[in-house]
Design a protein that fits this description.
single chain
């Protein structure tokens, strides 16, 4: 998923830059940074959920890391669509965090993966 998402975003970024000029370059750079961080975050969370039987605290540590990363992303983008997608991903992370706090050792991470897919859509020109 990480490689596909990164490739799709990089292609979209290149096309957007060619088609639209400087404003598109800013969005393209935001998209590339965001997509890379999101793909990494989703992978970390998937790994933590997969390994929860060994150490449930990995999920919480992963969620904390993702939250910090998303906060940094939101602070560095001035693109409204990307900011909204980051907000949606943050909400997904909080949903997973709530599930874990309520005792679910294998929470549904679909809200997180859905929000990550939205990042790809935002970064695709058209």
């Amino acid at each position: 998923m990480k490689r596909r998402l990164a490739l799709a975003v990089a292609t979209a970024a290149a096309l957007t830059t060619v088609l639209s000029g400087c404003g598109a370059l800013d969005k393209a750079m935001d998209c590339v940074k965001t997509a890379d961080a999101i793909a990494t975050s989703v992978t970390k969370l998937q790994d933590a959920v997969s390994n929860a039987s060994n150490d449930v605290t990995q999920i919480e540590e992963s969620l904390n890391s993702i939250s910090t990363e998303l906060g940094n992303l939101k602070d560095t983008t001035d693109n409204a669509d990307l900011a909204k997608a980051v907000d949606d991903l943050t909400k997904g992370v909080e949903t997973v965090r709530t599930s874990v706090k309520n005792g679910d050792a294998t929470p549904d991470i679909q809200p997180v993966t859905d929000a990550a897919a939205e990042i790809g859509k935002v970064c695709t020109p058209g």
